[in-house]
Amino acid sequence: MSSDALVLFALNATWQIAALALLALGLGLVFGLLRIMNMAHGDFVMLGAYAPVLTAQWGLPPLAAIPVCLLMVGLTALIVERLVIRHLYARMFDSLLATWALSILMREGAELAFGPQFRNVPLPFEGVTQIGTVGYPSYRLLVIGLVAAGFLALWLWYRRSLTGLKLRAMVDNPTLAEGAGINTARLSAGAFVAGCLLAGLAGLLLAPTLSVYPGMGLDALIRSFFTLIVGGLGTLEGLAVGAAVIGGLQAGLSAYLSQTAGYLGVLILAILFLWRRPDGLYRHR
Amino acid sequence: MGSIVTVNLALAAGLLLVPWLGGDFLAWQIGLFLLYGVAAQGVGFAWGRGGFLPLGNALFFGLGAYGAAAVLKATEGALWVNLAAMALIALLCAALAFGIALLLFRGRMGSGPGFSLVTLALVLIAAQIAETTPALTGGFNGFSGYPPLAGLDPFGGLYPVIVALVVAVTLSLTLIERLPAGLILRGLVAQEERLELLGFAPHRVKAWAFAGSAGIGALAGSLYASHQGIVTPQAIGFMLSAELVIWAAVGGRFSPLGPLLGAVAIGWASSALRDTVAWWEVGVAAVFLLVVLLQPGGAMDLIHRGIARLGLTRRRRDAPPLPAPPSRAAAARGPLRLCDVGLSAGGIRILDRLSLALPEAGILCVIGPNGAGKTTMLNAVTARLPVQSGQITLGAVSLGGKATWQMLDHGIARKMQIPTVFGALTLRENLQLAALAGRMRGLDALRPSPLRWQTPPVARLLADPEVPLAAGLDKDAGHLPQGHRQFLELAMTLSPEPRLVMLDEPAAGMSPAETQLMVRLARDYQQQTGAAIVVIEHDMHLVDALADEVAVLHQGRTLATGSLAEVRRDPLVAAVYAGGHK
């Protein structure tokens, strides 16, 4: 392999890993903090990905996609939390089923509202950055940078801030946290909405690199899920490890064999982990 | 029995009327959803009866369909060859499912989301393979160009075959509910831990349920191949799996007919309305969400409740009891011995080289302050917690590496500290399950008579006027007061006539009179069977009345053994109980 090909492969793998980490972040947050398997996660990604489609349709500038995305996803998440999720805290299996029903509802709703056709979202800016002799799309490099910075910021915030402390208290012992004067209902609602907003933002950022259609959530959900399973549910570090393994595996198998092999490899790895190491690679403590 | 025949005859008659009343095309449409409905019945069986949700059952439907299509192509429609081949495919699918479930459930995976996600991943893999290997499956275009089963016209002669499958599956599923197998499944969902202590291996029970679910799905799939004349990756995909779950949920997963009803009603209505009513699919999804949140029993649950309110349920007559066959737990195996057993959990050493030899017969009371490791010792013996060092032996046999469900076959039975009974089942059903424990073999699970077995210990308890069980046999065990629950659990523990009985705080939450009764029952059982009994207890009056021998545990070790009087004189014991240091 020439050094150019190697650099390109490394960039592609990094891109895959960053995209996966971004996709899985919201799901990991909701599961880690609330013990809810949000099967509708992918559909919040889908909703976010429709934001640039809608702003283009309405003739707004591309940057308007950000507030549109936050508003649309945030409101949906708020309503969903009130009507569905609130009754399901600490009921993991029921939450899986209910959010799955919700996922179908959102997918069918999106088909009704936006139509079933595939949409293409143009890159907000074209342009290629030269790395050595290899040219790589600047947008992807920007996303990689944003993901890395975002992860670091989130990790620091969770460890250092007062809200982070309250969240950690709630995860550790919800009853005691409530007894200590923490409004866990509001905190839980906030955590769920935040997780969905992250999913929406992931959709927004990745929209130019995916085809946007109502059923796109399933693929996003599955890839996020399996990232979390391999890494270990519930921690940022685990999520990063999982994204690295799954993204690396997929990039490697796709480069050397085929797209199908990459997909199958990820599925088989996920099954092995669910079976033999349900706690994933990264363990707490 | 009569009601089952009535329901199934009515079902068969109603379905056979469809082509006559609505024409062959309607029958063809209904036929498709009946096949989907049978697969949904399979999902409902695993989910409602087995308590675990398979998210990828289209895997077996699709394997059945592709398999049948390949067989039909190779044999050109020869009837008996085809039927035999389809039965074989269904058996293979069942065996595959059995193996998958056995592997998955034997580990740490409970009935929770982990299993569902694995089945989801499996169906995604299958769909991907179906799409990308055109040589084998015809790829996206599908597998076609084979004759239908026995040359039957999908718009005519095939329909009665489909109805026959529907009735056969519905009949089998309703019958299983009335057989020991159905009772064991209900016990599994109600209280897995108790079922395991009664000697049933939960992972095997679940594997049988999943095998049944998969076999049913494969049978439906194999007829689907003849019905459609083409098999595409859609038959093995995630979307179909998802719809099977929705139909089972909305129709009612706890009833054999519910998923069938759901599939035919929703599926057929969807195919008719999907194109004309824009919000139809949104509506179906909303109904599914509402069912999950508010009506977990689905439509059939509403129907059953309606029937019950109208007073139409028939009371079941009680058949006279039959004597139960001998129990495997009753054979003597020698005394229990713990030797240098060490066990830590969460970084805390709970058993610290604990050594204790039990007498082969008689009552040993284990006492000691809270946290001494008494209950943990029982957990170590019954393999609820893994032992890190040392040996636990029963006579010449080492119990190391054995699972909890194997303990009963070694003659060990246990009453838990918090009384553990099948709360969702009636007292009678609790005792029926206990009568099967240690006595049931192979095909007994599919014969009705084992449900009438009565065991000597339970017969004695029911005949005892002081024991408060005989009066309320048809009440749910979950509604019993604490004291009565203790007696029920005692009855279930003693029912298999174990040689080693472990009673963890049997008198907790009991009145003095009830405590006395408990003492008498334990004594009686010991004298009648010559068994060994270990009792963990804090109540010294009870210890005084019951113990042939006493062992004192402290900080995970045996501090003293002997008669209660001897132990009381021991200065070490006095120091521990007076709050001094060892």
Salient structural properties:
heterodimer; A: 285 residues; two-stranded antiparallel sheet; 3% strand; globular; B: alpha/beta; Rossmann fold; four-stranded antiparallel β-sheet; 14 strands; nucleotide-binding (chain B); membrane (chain B); ATP-binding (chain B); transmembrane helix (chain B)
Short description:
Chain A is mostly helical and 285 residues long. Chain A has helices at 3-34, 41-57, 65-83, 92-114, 138-160, 162-172, 174-179, 184-206, 217-231, 236-256, 259-276; strands at residues 128-131, 134-137.
What would you say this structure looks like, in words?
- The complex is a heterodimer of chains A (285) and B (582).
- Chain A has 285 residues and is mainly α.
- Chain A has a domain at 21-218.
- Chain A has 11 helices and 2 strands, in the order ααααββααααααα.
- Chain A has helices at residues 3-34, 41-57, 65-83, 92-114, 138-160, 162-172, 174-179, 184-206, 217-231, 236-256, 259-276, and strands at residues 128-131, 134-137.
- In chain A, strands 1-2 form a two-stranded antiparallel sheet.
- In chain A, a hairpin with a 2-residue loop joins strand 1 (128-131) and strand 2.
- Chain A is globular and about 60 Å long.
- Chain B is α/β, with parallel strands linked by helices.
- Chain B folds into 2 domains: 2-237, no CATH class; 330-420 and 482-490 and 499-577, 3-Layer(aba) Sandwich (Rossmann fold).
- Chain B contains 22 helices and 14 strands.
- Chain B has helices spanning 2-22, 24-49, 58-75, 79-106, 113-132, 134-137, 158-177, 180-190, 192-197, 202-228, 238-251, 258-273, 280-294, 298-309, 374-381, 427-436, 456-463, 482-494, 512-529, 540-546, 564-569, 571-577; strands at 143-144, 230-231, 322-323, 336-345, 348-357, 362-367, 389-394, 397-398, 412-415, 453-454, 500-504, 532-536, 549-554, 557-562.
- A 6-stranded mixed sheet of chain B has the order 9-11-12-6-13-14, sandwiched between helices.
- In chain B, a hairpin with a 2-residue loop joins strand 7 and strand 8 (397-398).
- In chain B, helix 2 (24-49) crosses helix 11 (238-251) and helix 7 runs antiparallel to helix 10.
- The longest helix of chain B has 28 residues, at 79-106.
- Chain B is elongated and about 90 Å long.
- The termini of chain B are far apart.
- The mean pLDDT of chain B is 89.
- Chain B: The chain crosses the membrane at residues 25-45, 52-72, 78-105, 117-137, 157-176, 207-225, 257-273, 279-299.
- Chain B: Keywords: ATP-binding, Cell membrane, Membrane, Nucleotide-binding, Transmembrane, Transmembrane helix, Transport.
- Chain B: Residues 336-580 form the ABC transporter domain.
- Chain B: GO terms for molecular function: ATP binding; ATP hydrolysis activity; branched-chain amino acid transmembrane transporter activity.
- Chain B: This is ABC transporter domain-containing protein.
- Chain A: Pfam families: BPD_transp_2.
